Amino acid sequence: MSNLLNENETTAVKILKDNLIYDYQGLVNGINDGEIEMQEWLDNFDYEILIQSAEQEFNKAYKNGYLTNNMNGTTLEIKHINFSGKDKKKLIFETAAALAFVKLDNDWKTGNLFF
Length: 115
Prior knowledge:
A two-stranded antiparallel sheet has the order 1-2. It has helices spanning 7-32, 38-44, 47-64, 79-82, 86-110, and strands at 66-68, 75-77. The protein has one domain.
């Protein structure tokens, strides 16, 4: 049995997941700074929005050729996964979104997101 995702695709999932978490943590900072309301954060904390955000980030990276992790600087040359097929890319986006959603939800429940 082969893996669902190859090494580059797995790296893309990790980068997209970290970047989604990074973006949502940025919104938390916006709440703390009074720039956005808590309700805006809650309205945007949605699995489907996370999937869309992952896809948008991937497409933006495709334009410049590289997908870069905003937390640790890990970079992946996007051409290594761009031609993996539509279903494979969908799996990458959905997996990254699911992992980010679980992490953010757990952080919310345990008080690790600060408001």
